Amino acid sequence: MAKFFEKIKARRAREAGKSIKEIAKELDVSKSTVSLWCSNIKLSQKQIDALQKRRITAGYAGRLKGAEIQKRRRLEKISNYQQEGFKRIGKVTSRDTLLFGLGLYLGEGNKSGNHFQFVNADPEVIQAIIQWLKIFGVTDKDFYCNIIINEIHRYRAHEVEKKWKRITGFSSTQFKKTVFIKSANKKVYENNDVHLGTLILRVYKSSDLLYKVTGLIHGLLRRMNESLP
After folding, report:
1. Whole-structure pTM value
2. How far apart are alpha carbons 13 and 23 in whole angstroms?
3. Cβ–Cβ < 8 Å for 158, 196
4. What is the CA angle 49-50-54, rounded to 5?
5. What is the CA radius of gyration of the chain?
6. pLDDT along the chain (229 residues), means of 10
7. How far apart are CA 65 and CA 87, in angstroms?
Protein backbone atom coordinates (compact mmCIF):
# COMPACT_ATOMS: atom_id res chain seq x y z
CA MET A 1 0.00 0.00 0.00
CA ALA A 2 2.88 2.34 0.82
CA LYS A 3 4.22 2.05 -2.71
CA PHE A 4 0.78 2.89 -4.06
CA PHE A 5 0.75 6.26 -2.28
CA GLU A 6 4.34 6.91 -3.30
CA LYS A 7 3.36 6.27 -6.90
CA ILE A 8 0.54 8.81 -6.67
CA LYS A 9 2.89 11.39 -5.13
CA ALA A 10 5.44 10.68 -7.83
CA ARG A 11 2.95 11.13 -10.66
CA ARG A 12 1.60 14.38 -9.16
CA ALA A 13 5.12 15.72 -8.76
CA ARG A 14 5.96 14.75 -12.35
CA GLU A 15 2.81 16.41 -13.66
CA ALA A 16 3.90 19.53 -11.75
CA GLY A 17 7.12 19.54 -13.78
CA LYS A 18 9.64 18.01 -11.39
CA SER A 19 12.51 15.90 -12.68
CA ILE A 20 12.79 12.14 -12.19
CA LYS A 21 15.89 12.72 -10.06
CA GLU A 22 14.16 15.25 -7.80
CA ILE A 23 11.17 12.96 -7.27
CA ALA A 24 13.34 9.92 -6.52
CA LYS A 25 15.26 11.89 -3.92
CA GLU A 26 12.10 13.25 -2.27
CA LEU A 27 10.44 9.83 -2.05
CA ASP A 28 13.64 7.88 -1.34
CA VAL A 29 13.10 5.45 -4.22
CA SER A 30 15.19 4.61 -7.25
CA LYS A 31 15.10 6.75 -10.39
CA SER A 32 14.20 3.70 -12.45
CA THR A 33 11.10 3.15 -10.30
CA VAL A 34 9.98 6.77 -10.67
CA SER A 35 10.65 6.60 -14.40
CA LEU A 36 8.44 3.53 -14.67
CA TRP A 37 5.63 5.11 -12.62
CA CYS A 38 5.68 8.27 -14.72
CA SER A 39 6.45 6.78 -18.12
CA ASN A 40 3.16 7.87 -19.71
CA ILE A 41 3.24 11.45 -18.39
CA LYS A 42 4.18 13.99 -21.05
CA LEU A 43 5.64 17.29 -19.89
CA SER A 44 4.73 20.53 -21.61
CA GLN A 45 7.39 22.45 -23.52
CA LYS A 46 7.33 25.06 -20.77
CA GLN A 47 8.02 22.40 -18.12
CA ILE A 48 10.81 20.90 -20.25
CA ASP A 49 12.42 24.33 -20.66
CA ALA A 50 12.18 24.96 -16.91
CA LEU A 51 13.83 21.60 -16.14
CA GLN A 52 16.63 22.34 -18.58
CA LYS A 53 17.19 25.75 -17.03
CA ARG A 54 17.37 24.24 -13.53
CA ARG A 55 19.73 21.54 -14.78
CA ILE A 56 22.11 24.14 -16.25
CA THR A 57 21.93 26.27 -13.10
CA ALA A 58 22.59 23.26 -10.87
CA GLY A 59 25.51 22.19 -13.06
CA TYR A 60 27.03 25.67 -12.92
CA ALA A 61 26.60 25.80 -9.13
CA GLY A 62 28.25 22.41 -8.83
CA ARG A 63 31.20 23.45 -10.96
CA LEU A 64 31.51 26.68 -9.00
CA LYS A 65 31.50 24.79 -5.71
CA GLY A 66 34.08 22.34 -7.04
CA ALA A 67 36.31 25.18 -8.20
CA GLU A 68 36.04 26.86 -4.81
CA ILE A 69 37.02 23.64 -3.04
CA GLN A 70 40.02 23.23 -5.36
CA LYS A 71 41.05 26.84 -4.76
CA ARG A 72 40.84 26.40 -0.99
CA ARG A 73 42.92 23.23 -1.15
CA ARG A 74 45.50 24.96 -3.35
CA LEU A 75 45.77 27.94 -0.96
CA GLU A 76 46.12 25.60 2.03
CA LYS A 77 48.87 23.68 0.24
CA ILE A 78 50.71 26.91 -0.63
CA SER A 79 50.42 28.12 2.97
CA ASN A 80 51.77 24.83 4.30
CA TYR A 81 54.75 24.93 1.94
CA GLN A 82 55.45 28.54 2.90
CA GLN A 83 55.53 27.63 6.59
CA GLU A 84 57.70 24.61 5.82
CA GLY A 85 60.02 26.80 3.73
CA PHE A 86 60.36 29.37 6.50
CA LYS A 87 61.35 26.68 9.00
CA ARG A 88 63.73 24.96 6.60
CA ILE A 89 65.57 28.17 5.66
CA GLY A 90 66.26 29.01 9.29
CA LYS A 91 68.57 31.91 10.10
CA VAL A 92 69.88 33.80 7.07
CA THR A 93 73.58 34.66 7.20
CA SER A 94 75.32 37.57 5.48
CA ARG A 95 76.75 35.12 2.94
CA ASP A 96 73.25 33.77 2.24
CA THR A 97 72.09 37.33 1.63
CA LEU A 98 74.99 38.03 -0.73
CA LEU A 99 74.34 34.92 -2.81
CA PHE A 100 70.59 35.55 -2.86
CA GLY A 101 71.10 39.04 -4.26
CA LEU A 102 73.56 37.81 -6.86
CA GLY A 103 71.00 35.25 -8.02
CA LEU A 104 68.34 37.94 -8.31
CA TYR A 105 70.62 40.23 -10.26
CA LEU A 106 71.72 37.40 -12.54
CA GLY A 107 68.07 36.90 -13.48
CA GLU A 108 66.70 40.44 -13.55
CA GLY A 109 69.65 42.83 -13.66
CA ASN A 110 71.59 44.66 -16.34
CA LYS A 111 74.91 42.87 -16.97
CA SER A 112 76.32 45.06 -19.73
CA GLY A 113 77.05 48.76 -20.16
CA ASN A 114 78.27 50.86 -17.25
CA HIS A 115 75.37 51.34 -14.85
CA PHE A 116 73.51 49.24 -12.31
CA GLN A 117 69.89 48.51 -13.25
CA PHE A 118 67.44 46.00 -11.78
CA VAL A 119 63.93 45.38 -13.13
CA ASN A 120 61.12 43.61 -11.32
CA ALA A 121 57.37 43.84 -10.67
CA ASP A 122 57.29 42.18 -7.24
CA PRO A 123 57.36 44.72 -4.37
CA GLU A 124 58.99 42.22 -1.98
CA VAL A 125 61.78 41.50 -4.48
CA ILE A 126 62.38 45.23 -4.98
CA GLN A 127 62.57 45.73 -1.20
CA ALA A 128 64.99 42.80 -0.92
CA ILE A 129 67.34 44.12 -3.61
CA ILE A 130 67.34 47.60 -2.01
CA GLN A 131 68.39 46.07 1.32
CA TRP A 132 70.93 43.84 -0.44
CA LEU A 133 72.63 46.82 -2.07
CA LYS A 134 73.43 48.25 1.35
CA ILE A 135 76.11 45.53 1.55
CA PHE A 136 77.95 47.57 -1.10
CA GLY A 137 77.48 50.87 0.70
CA VAL A 138 74.55 52.09 -1.41
CA THR A 139 72.29 54.47 0.56
CA ASP A 140 68.65 55.37 0.00
CA LYS A 141 69.54 58.70 -1.63
CA ASP A 142 71.70 56.93 -4.25
CA PHE A 143 68.65 55.37 -5.93
CA TYR A 144 66.42 56.60 -8.72
CA CYS A 145 63.77 54.73 -10.65
CA ASN A 146 61.10 54.61 -13.35
CA ILE A 147 57.74 52.90 -13.37
CA ILE A 148 56.72 51.02 -16.52
CA ILE A 149 53.01 50.34 -16.82
CA ASN A 150 50.39 49.76 -19.49
CA GLU A 151 48.69 52.79 -21.03
CA ILE A 152 45.30 51.64 -19.69
CA HIS A 153 46.55 52.50 -16.16
CA ARG A 154 47.37 56.13 -16.98
CA TYR A 155 44.31 57.32 -15.04
CA ARG A 156 45.73 55.83 -11.82
CA ALA A 157 49.41 56.68 -12.39
CA HIS A 158 49.52 58.93 -9.32
CA GLU A 159 48.15 56.15 -7.12
CA VAL A 160 50.67 53.65 -8.53
CA GLU A 161 53.60 56.01 -7.86
CA LYS A 162 52.32 56.67 -4.35
CA LYS A 163 52.32 52.91 -3.62
CA TRP A 164 55.82 52.44 -5.02
CA LYS A 165 57.03 55.33 -2.84
CA ARG A 166 55.67 53.55 0.22
CA ILE A 167 57.26 50.26 -0.88
CA THR A 168 60.71 51.72 -1.59
CA GLY A 169 60.81 54.59 0.89
CA PHE A 170 62.02 56.88 -1.92
CA SER A 171 61.12 60.55 -2.30
CA SER A 172 59.21 62.03 -5.25
CA THR A 173 62.42 63.39 -6.79
CA GLN A 174 63.81 59.86 -7.07
CA PHE A 175 60.94 58.84 -9.35
CA LYS A 176 61.62 59.83 -12.93
CA LYS A 177 59.03 60.02 -15.68
CA THR A 178 56.65 57.04 -15.77
CA VAL A 179 56.81 55.03 -19.00
CA PHE A 180 53.45 54.03 -20.46
CA ILE A 181 53.35 51.02 -22.78
CA LYS A 182 50.74 50.93 -25.50
CA SER A 183 49.05 47.59 -25.97
CA ALA A 184 46.29 46.35 -28.25
CA ASN A 185 45.09 44.12 -25.43
CA LYS A 186 42.16 45.87 -23.75
CA LYS A 187 41.28 43.02 -21.41
CA VAL A 188 40.66 44.13 -17.82
CA TYR A 189 42.04 41.65 -15.28
CA GLU A 190 40.82 41.00 -11.74
CA ASN A 191 43.84 42.79 -10.24
CA ASN A 192 43.40 45.80 -12.52
CA ASP A 193 42.86 48.21 -9.61
CA VAL A 194 45.94 47.04 -7.67
CA HIS A 195 48.37 46.42 -10.54
CA LEU A 196 51.62 48.34 -10.00
CA GLY A 197 53.43 47.70 -13.26
CA THR A 198 57.20 47.15 -13.21
CA LEU A 199 59.89 49.16 -11.44
CA ILE A 200 63.27 49.92 -13.02
CA LEU A 201 65.67 50.46 -10.15
CA ARG A 202 68.90 52.34 -10.85
CA VAL A 203 71.82 53.74 -8.84
CA TYR A 204 73.63 57.02 -9.55
CA LYS A 205 77.31 56.74 -10.57
CA SER A 206 77.15 52.97 -10.44
CA SER A 207 79.74 51.72 -12.95
CA ASP A 208 82.03 50.36 -10.21
CA LEU A 209 79.03 48.82 -8.46
CA LEU A 210 78.03 47.03 -11.66
CA TYR A 211 81.55 45.73 -12.24
CA LYS A 212 81.74 44.51 -8.65
CA VAL A 213 78.37 42.72 -8.82
CA THR A 214 79.05 41.11 -12.22
CA GLY A 215 82.49 40.09 -10.98
CA LEU A 216 80.91 38.30 -8.03
CA ILE A 217 78.36 36.64 -10.31
CA HIS A 218 81.22 35.45 -12.54
CA GLY A 219 83.00 34.04 -9.49
CA LEU A 220 79.85 32.34 -8.24
CA LEU A 221 79.18 30.67 -11.59
CA ARG A 222 82.79 29.45 -11.82
CA ARG A 223 82.69 28.01 -8.31
CA MET A 224 79.39 26.25 -8.98
CA ASN A 225 80.65 24.79 -12.27
CA GLU A 226 83.85 23.60 -10.54
CA SER A 227 81.79 21.76 -7.94
CA LEU A 228 79.83 19.82 -10.54
CA PRO A 229 80.76 16.13 -10.86
Report:
1. 0.64
2. 7
3. no
4. 115
5. 32
6. 76 87 88 88 84 77 76 90 91 91 92 91 95 94 95 91 95 94 66 86 95 94 84
7. 33
